[in-house]
């Protein structure tokens, strides 16, 4: 009996230990339905009905926090703990219907993580409206503990109506942390690695769309990638990445920058830009219909403190009040990166501004189409303009100087700058210039038709990247076309053969 009792109690203790083990090793899923009347225990059958219940919990790799589709929660979701890069904690939705909404109700953010890594936020909607603007975000992921946090994924999230700060002139500190989505490890020696922000839809956010500041100038984050996001009508910058080694920003569309429910009210912003980065690449993006700010509002910007190469390629910009490109290497600590602006199409983006004389600009195989506006181009003292097509007005002027080299460009209407070589005046023979809309597909009118003087008559550029705007190859040795199109002449005959 004694033995049996002892065995029974041993089995009981083992069972208890086993269930404890199950609890700590098995990933937990917690469910939230803020429309439920009862508080619940966090299971799918009995979900929590308030964010506070989840904010009290500590999550680990593989855990999931699931909000019921079609519902609304008020407040800030700020769960504790860390996942892993390969197995993050997931914040997402369950059930069918509209994305669940978290309304921050004018608090700092709707979702907030501090000093945490290994998180994946997906398939939820966040909003954070207020009657007056302030330092606010839809999603805030920050660090101030001088540690490196790894693995932040934010995708398929809808972020809208965030009352972020809109005046960078008078409220710069609060402006720079205001955005739809903020990832910020810039505090002292904190840092984020592996930050992936993609396929989000961001509208009407004061301060800007996406700001990813991964570390500091001498402590850059690794693996930062922002792609496929749509950003509309935000009162400030479209996308900014700072303090990243080899950041990639691609296939995003930013429009209506400066406008929206929380419009710009002071200072400067730009479309897509990088600061304090090494070898930054901004490619295949569209930026359009940006409003003028104090001075900037260019579609793309290699700002200060960038090193290596800062590359802007395969993008389409149109109707941006500040024009196509800003060199702001002199706006802070100079990094002196080479600036490559190549194979882009700019329609009614007629301005370039340069503040900083150290970088060398390589501007080649672009189309700059400005038949109704003056060019307003200030460029670094060392600039190479090769193989571009400039369409301008007869009274526009282009910059000249002993270090500014104009070679193999085509100029329509606008006068050739003095001192160039192998430049040509005339009609470049575009298929249908001026017909670009808001999509990449809509710019096919900047391809070249039969008989174009731009075909096969450019100068060979070393390390030219090997591809044009449309993905046609560009030879390292044979003469390219001028402009952004390097394919064969496009047949424009209206009579199709059957
Ligand atoms: C969460 O759990 C981890 C691992 O057990 C622990 O190190 C950490 O202190 C906990 N954090 C909180 C906020 O309870
Ligand atoms: C959220 O707040 C709004 C406005 O105060 C209120 O109408 C709504 O009932 C709240 N919803 C929940 C689920 O708390
Ligand atoms: C981070 O580093 C700074 C500068 O050394 C220091 O002042 C601060 O206390 C540190 N913070 C933490 C949380 O260790
Ligand atoms: C870092 O964060 C701490 C705590 O939030 C704050 O007091 C401090 O001003 C921040 N410092 C920097 C350099 O951002
Ligand atoms: C920058 O680009 C040039 C020319 O394409 C290339 O030779 C060089 O290796 C690049 N530098 C870096 C740091 O990638
Ligand atoms: C060119 O742009 C500058 C700002 O960079 C502006 O001050 C100036 O008025 C513009 N000039 C013309 C001729 O449009
Ligand atoms: C101009 O083009 C011709 C023919 O391609 C070439 O021989 C010459 O070197 C070019 N001049 C310069 C300065 O590049
Ligand atoms: C392009 O987008 C702008 C708003 O940014 C809009 O006003 C315009 O109508 C759109 N154009 C086309 C062709 O869809």
UniProtKB/TrEMBL annotation:
It comes from the Eukaryota. Keywords: Signal. Gene3D superfamilies: Single-stranded right-handed beta-helix, Pectin lyase-like (2.160.20.10). Residues 1-27 form the signal peptide. InterPro entries: PbH1, Pectin_lyas_fold, Pectin_lyase_fold/virulence. The keyword Nucleus does not apply. This is Right handed beta helix domain-containing protein.
């Amino acid at each position: 009996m004694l033995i049996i009792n002892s065995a029974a109690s041993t089995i009981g203790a083992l069972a208890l230990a086993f269930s404890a083990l199950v609890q700590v090793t098995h990933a937990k899923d917690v469910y939230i339905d803020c429309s439920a009347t009862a508080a619940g225990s966090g299971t799918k059958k009995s979900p929590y009905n308030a964010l506070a219940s989840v904010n009290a919990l500590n999550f680990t790799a593989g855990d999931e926090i699931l909000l019921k589709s079609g519902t609304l929660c008020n407040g800030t979701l700020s769960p504790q703990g860390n996942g892993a890069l390969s197995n993050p904690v997931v914040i997402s939705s369950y059930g069918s219907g509209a994305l669940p909404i978290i309304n921050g109700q004018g608090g700092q953010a709707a979702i907030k993580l501090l000093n945490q890594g290994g998180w994946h936020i997906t398939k939820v909607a966040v909003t954070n409206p207020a009657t007056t603007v302030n330092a606010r975000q839809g999603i805030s992921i920050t660090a101030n503990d001088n540690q490196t946090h790894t693995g932040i994924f934010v995708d398929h999230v809808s972020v809208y109506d965030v009352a972020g700060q809109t005046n960078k002139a008078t409220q710069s500190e609060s402006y720079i942390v205001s955005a739809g989505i903020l990832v910020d490890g810039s505090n002292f020696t904190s840092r984020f690695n592996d930050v992936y922000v993609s396929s989000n839809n961001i509208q009407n956010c004061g301060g800007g769309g996406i700001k990813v500041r991964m570390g500091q100038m001498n402590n850059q984050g690794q693996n930062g990638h922002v792609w496929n996001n749509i950003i509309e009508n935000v009162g400030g910058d479209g996308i900014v990445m700072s303090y990243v080694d080899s950041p990639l920003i691609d296939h995003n569309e930013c429009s209506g920058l400066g406008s929206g429910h929380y419009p710009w009210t002071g200072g400067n912003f730009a479309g897509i830009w990088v600061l304090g980065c090494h070898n930054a690449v901004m490619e295949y993006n569209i930026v359009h219909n940006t409003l003028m700010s104090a001075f900037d509002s260019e579609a793309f910007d290699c700002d200060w403190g960038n090193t290596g190469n800062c590359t802007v390629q395969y993008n389409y910009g149109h109707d941006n009040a500040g024009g196509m490109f800003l060199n702001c290497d002199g706006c802070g600590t100079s990094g002196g990166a080479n600036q490559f602006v190549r194979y882009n199409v700019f329609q009614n983006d007629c301005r370039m501004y340069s503040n900083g004389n150290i970088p060398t600009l390589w501007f080649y195989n672009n189309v700059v189409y400005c038949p109704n506006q003056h060019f307003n181009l200030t460029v670094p003292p060392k600039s190479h303009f090769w193989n571009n097509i400039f369409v301008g007005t007869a009274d526009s002027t282009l910059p000249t100087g002993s270090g500014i080299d104009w070679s193999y460009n085509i100029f329509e209407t606008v006068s050739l700058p003095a001192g160039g070589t192998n430049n040509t005046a005339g009609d470049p023979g575009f298929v249908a210039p001026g017909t670009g809309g808001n999509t990449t597909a809509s710019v096919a009118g900047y391809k070249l038709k039969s008989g174009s003087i731009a075909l096969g008559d450019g100068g060979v550029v070393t390390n030219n990247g090997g591809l044009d705007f449309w993905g046609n190859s560009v030879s390292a040795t044979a003469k390219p076309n001028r402009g952004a199109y390097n394919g064969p002449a496009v047949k424009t005959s209206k009579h199709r053969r059957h």
